[in-house]
Amino acid sequence: xKPLTSSTSPxxxxxxxxxxxxxxxxxWAVLALVGIDVGINSxxxxxxxxxxxxxxxxxxxxxxxxxxxxxxxxxxPTPETSAPITGAGWLDQTQFDREPNQVESGKELMVATYGxxxxxxxxxxxxxxxxxxxxxxxRAPLAPPNWSYAAFTMDLGNHQADGxxxxxxxxxxxxxxxxxxxxxxxxxxxPYTHPHYELAGxxxxxxxxxxxxxxxxxxxxxxxxxxxQTFRQQLERHDPFYDPLLFRESWLxxxxxxxxxxRGYAQVSNQGRRNRVYQAKTGFNPESSQVKILEALVxxxxxxxxxxxxxxxxxxxNNIGYQDHLDQLLIPLLEAEGIPYVSxxxxxPTDDPRLFLGDGHFLEEIDEAIAAEVxxxxxxxxQQ
Amino acid sequence: MLFNTVEFFIxxxxxxxxxxxxxxxxxxxxxxVASYLFYGWWDIRFLFLIVISTVVDFCTGLLIGHGRIDLxxxxxxxxxxxxAAFIFTTLQWRVVTWQNGSLQVDWSTFFGEPLxxxxxxxxxxxxxxxxxxxxxxxxxxxxxxxTLGLTLSMVTNLVILGFFKYFNFFIDSxxxxxxxxxxxVEFLDLGIILPVGISFYTFxxxxxxxxxxxxxxxxxxxxxxxxLFVTYFPQLVAGPIERANHLLPKLLGPRRLSFGGTAHGxxxxxxxxxxxVAIADGVAVTVNQVYGSSGQITFTDVAVGTLIFALQIYGxxxxxxxxxxxxxxxxxxxxxxxxxxxxxxxxxxxxWRRWHISLSTWLRDYLYxxxxxxxxxxxxxYVNLMTTMVLGGLWHGAAWNFVLWGFYQxxxxxxxxxxxxxVNPPRRPPRWRQVLNTVVxxxxxxxxxxxxxxxxxxxxxxxxxxxLTFSGGSFGADIPRLSALVGIPVLLVLDWFAYHGSDEYxxxxxxxxxxxxxxxxMLFAILLGMSNETADxxxxxx
Lengths: 384, 542
Hints:
The structure holds 2 protein chains of 2 kinds.
Chain A: H1 15-43, H2 56-60, H3 67-74, H4 93-96, E1 109-115, H5 117-129, E2 133-139, H6 145-155, E3 163-169, H7 181-184, E4 196-200, E5 203-207, H8 214-222, H9 225-238, H10 244-247, H11 256-277, E6 278-279, E7 283-284, H12 289-307, E8 311-317, H13 325-337, E9 341-343, H14 364-383
Parallel strand pairs in A: 1-2, 1-3, 3-8, 8-9
Antiparallel strand pairs in A: 4-5, 6-7
Helix pairs in contact in A: 5-14, 6-12, 8-9
Chain B: H1 6-21, H2 24-43, H3 47-66, H4 71-90, E1 96-99, E2 102-105, H5 107-110, H6 114-138, H7 142-180, H8 198-213, H9 223-231, H10 244-251, H11 259-292, H12 299-330, H13 348-354, H14 357-371, H15 378-396, H16 400-423, H17 431-453, H18 457-469, H19 482-500, H20 512-530
Antiparallel strand pairs in B: 1-2
């Protein structure tokens, strides 16, 4: 092809030639994009075997795949043929009962923790540093507060803990009232499900997910399109982070470049949903339904725990980048209601990045200091 | 509104669609409203500051140039200022929200708070005072009237800029000074927010009155067109800082929308998005890790982190300028080129002819030359250079590291000038010497970026010590994101072509398959970048 020279600038061509010129250039561009797309799909195809971990690039180019397609790939006909993550976070009493349910011999106190990874790390830190304490560590990856509350209420009466710790984290408070870990995290969805709560006056109405266990989800996904359809419709009605463009499997999944577009859309749309609840400048929106429901959950949690002679403790995790907005939101309520709490910002202020690991969690010694304080709070309130 | 958002894309499509069907006068009115919307999207209250600059500079421009302001212009400017005070500061737009598919207004607070009514009252009082005082101004001799007009314009603009941009800085610095002297003093904290782009539009509008005073420009009697010149949205918040004699004439007459202008505009928008989304945002995490680190830092960390920051700030700022120029080109209005492959400069002087050209030429024409430039003694020339660069540094931000960076750039320019006088280098050095000059200049510029990006004086000292002692160790931060790893080679190739091209249209003369492949790679890198979190433009803070 003869290159254009400065004397044949595209801007000086005749009208018909100009469009032909543009068409040719963009024809080449589209051809190159198709080549890139095919190349990525061949070179960085996600492993078919669910037990084989993907490389970083395979994972990266797969982030934008629809949630349904990711779930279908995760689930095999049996737990053994499914990805390990499919077993995590289910509100399943048999899973909870793998944890200690009474004070172990030689120890004097038991604490049950409910929440996400911060809660799990707190449980580990208590177990590691507090010799006299038995820990019942109930957790799910990225668990929003409604998961933690549901786990606590389900677990009530099945253990003899002296204190129950409900962990609330600023980062995923906007995700309160999602119904599954699949909508909480788009890049790497977690299939567990949990109830949605609505305020009816001052009381909470519970809407249970139509699929409750791992087996339910496996069966619906692999064998029962009607059940899956019902679940999807339920998400559409009640889950604030459900978005059909992100959730439903479609032809977009086949193209690597369109998957990138979908991931970009996910970033923007989920950020918009988070912004309705939280703004970096002003903090949490007290008028949002998430905040109002959270306040009701916290009150109910304290009341239910006290009715069983358990010390309720709220563990407030102020994530880096969220200042102490969670403290500002909840501490006035907790103090007014006399609910014991421990705030991470007393140990790791969010403006001091030295106290945080690269993945956003606290340094081990911070977790240990918080663990000591939590146990102290349970002990003190136990004595009263 | 950020250029790299869906909101801006929708906004641009609507503006462009309307622009195509309107006559040029209606185009100007529509662009004015669109520009206010563009800026008000961030914070509507600060539009009032822009209106103050607009009204004051319009009136003072006429006063300087024509010696009088006719009644109609006075009425229009007065009404405009009062209306703006009411709409932008008295009405509380933050209580208007979109909830559950409908517009919600909290009427109990919408009609204002005491501060908003005070601003409105103050505006009315000042407007009446100005109109009353006008009759006395008319009786002044022409020279005094011109001086008064210029002084009013300068004082108004610099007081607004100084208050909103530098008040906190001087208060904090004064507190620091007192604390060093052993006195624990706490001054007033007004919680001032920095209005985006204030330095850009202030300099642009100041150039208007200065040029009229110098007799280089005729004042315009058309208020709304002048208001558009001040707020023209493509370059409002981060430049290029346009001169009135370049931009204003294009706004005062019909524009021609050409195929070439549209094609080049779209090309510039794509290149700008590529630089911002793929490169600048793609390396931001790495830079933040290096400069946010409080642990052990190695030579490699500082050197690589700073090199990557050089790419980030270039991608961010030149990307913004490219998009601004591209958008304006779609509207048939050509804006000046703001960057011309700066990192291939062979001397500090050349760097400042290629980096942020609209600011460096502004400083040259309105500060360096009026100070005497190089027309006076050599010592005075060095003093002028240092003064210009230190103030240029301060223009970038209200912090001591920007002052230090300006001082450093001044030292580089003076040093280069001194050296050039001493050794009198050949006009066209051999190729190896050109490469060496480029490398030396790049290293000097990079150290300047360290000063620019540093978060504290301790960090400047610590990082400089690490560089001087070659403290060993590997690179501790994360590598940049995939979008940047794909994009950086593409950017280098683009800049190489640009450096060797005869003009900015070099890309359109490449073979078509190469152009197509370039666009495909840029789009691919943008898609990679889009799938990460977006970030604000760095220069919005200046």
